[in-house]
Amino acid sequence: MKNILITGGSGFIGSHVVRLFVTKYPNYNIINLDKLTYAGNPENLSDIENHSNYTFVKGDINDAAFVFDLFKKYSFEAVIHLAAESHVDRSISNPNEFIMTNIVGTLNLLNATKHTWGENVKDKVFYHISTDEVYGSLGKTGFFHETTAYDPRSPYSASKASSDHIVRAYFHTFNVPVKISNCSNNYGSHQFPEKLLPLMINNIKNNQPLPVYGEGINVRDWLWVVDHARAIDVIFHQGKIGETYNIGGHNEWKNIDIVHLLCDTMDEKLGREKGTSRKLITFVKDRAGHDMRYAIDATKIKQELGWEPSVTFEQGMNITIDWYMANQQWMDNITSGDYQNYYKEQYGNK
Ligand code: NAD
Ligand code: DAU
Predict the structure, then answer these.
(1) Structure pTM?
(2) Looking at beta carbons, which pairs linking 60-66 to residues 24 or more positions away fall under 8 Å?
(3) 89: which residues sit within 8 A by CB, 6+ positions away?
(4) 102 lines ligand 1 (CB under 6 A)
(5) Residue 350 — very low, low, confident or very high, per pLDDT cuts 50/70/90?
(6) CB 14 near ligand 1, within 6 Å
């Protein structure tokens, strides 16, 4: 049995990656290290938590001594690093936590990896999961390529860019066998409702205002989270050491168009008259430093590793909306308590 560390496995994308690896690879021992911040939710993995090849460890990647001890205990053969503070708006109101977890936390994992593996790095991999936001903001045309110069513009993207640089530095300087992927916006089940899609779905369902930032003309490139997990699987097993892979769906949408799509689809599913939910749309103060457009060129992963999305956007969205409608208890559990305070602070004065 290979011991594989997945960090941030109780979050949105991490839970999909853990589920895929635990069920697809019974010969891997998957150890999920997660601090269970507001974004980490054990319920995200309730369907696989009793599998014999799955272990949950509650802990903080910012605690270097704890991380070293964990590496000593499990002698990991591989690391897939997803743990992070991930929400841009929170990085604007409180940047410090992003610097700690995304930069120092990543450094702690790299140090423990380097110390544990030493020169014995054959068949080992430290796989760092990153974002397309490190490349900055595009104009109306063009795409992010693996070679695009970094130009992060929010505290979140700056912290992720910094972690990418440190990961590459450990490859070049210390021979730590690394891989990096930079993915576009994910959508799917189990996403915390601070992010655009689950927030809108929840508000439409509850007849609450739909807060669209600015004029709603910013563009994002949306990918189904299960396809991101599939890409991570492919890169983990077939990607080359030292390489970077961009992951995206070639699926660009203006925010306002995606909110319209959600409104119309949910009106139909909820048996509401067409146009009912669009009336909930409220244009609010724009996000500070709001990146205009992200779009990924995913040619490299397609040509070199044969990966491409498995579903159309329409299929993925239908599965996603149906999941949120069928899992109201999941949503209720995380939107009570602290979420209400966050929501008031984030949207109260807009
Ligand atoms: P998320 O916020 O849903 O989950 C993050 C997880 O990390 C949570 O379970 C949280 O408890 C855990 N965590 C946070 N701080 C920790 C710490 N100090 N120690 C241990 N665990 C900690 O995030 P997500 O959307 O699933 O993103 C996962 C990764 O993918 C991040 O690195 C993010 O930058 C990257 N990414 C996200 C997207 C997206 O669209 N969501 C796209 C591209 C890349
Ligand atoms: O591109 C990958 C990134 O995608 C990831 O690295 C981040 O972790 C992830 O959070 C996401 O970042 P975004 O800032 O693009 O996602 P978010 O869902 O916060 O916002 C999507 C767009 O919708 C963005 O242009 C802001 C806008 N928006 C968002 C919220 C929450 C609104 O108009 N209203 C809202 O209430």
Answers:
(1) 0.99
(2) 60/35, 60/105, 61/7, 61/33, 61/35, 61/101, 61/105, 61/106, 61/108, 61/109, 62/100, 62/101, 62/104, 62/105, 62/108, 63/108, 64/108, 64/111, 64/112
(3) 194, 287, 346
(4) no
(5) low
(6) yes
CATH top class, domain 2-187+223-247: alpha beta
How many Å apart are CA 58 and CA 83, to the nearest integer?
12
**269-298: pLDDT as tens digits:** 999 999 999 999 999 999 999 999 999 999
Task: Please write the tens of the pLDDT for every residue from 41-84.
Answer: 999 999 999 999 999 999 999 999 999 999 999 999 999 999 99
Count CB atoms within 10 A of the CB of residue 143. Answer: 19
Mutate to test the pocket of ligand 2, among 89, 196, 215, 296 (most ligand atoms within 8 A of CB): 196
pLDDT digits (tens, 9 = 90+) for 165-204: 999 999 999 999 999 999 999 999 999 999 999 999 999 9
If you average pLDDT over every residue of the chain, what do you get? 97
Do 184 and 247 meet the contact criterion of CB atoms below 8 Å apart? yes
To the query of whether residue 133 is one of the catalytic residues in this protein, the response is yes
Strands 219-224 and 252-254, bridge-based pairing: antiparallel
Distance of alpha carbon 290 from alpha carbon 349, whole angstroms: 18
For the chain, domain boundaries:
2-187+223-247
d(CA 136, CA 126): 25
Q: Which atom of ligand 1 is nearest to the CA of 83?
A: 7
| 308: region left, alpha or beta (phi > 0 left; psi from -120 to 50 alpha) | beta
Residue 251 contacts residue 222 (beta carbons within 8 Å): yes
Tell me, what DSSP letter sits at residue 53?
Answer: T
Q: Which of 156, 170, 245, 324 is catalytic?
A: 156
For residue 13, which atom of ligand 1 is closest to its CA?
26
State the pLDDT confidence band at 234, using cuts at 50, 70 and 90: very high
Percent of the chain topping pLDDT 70: 100
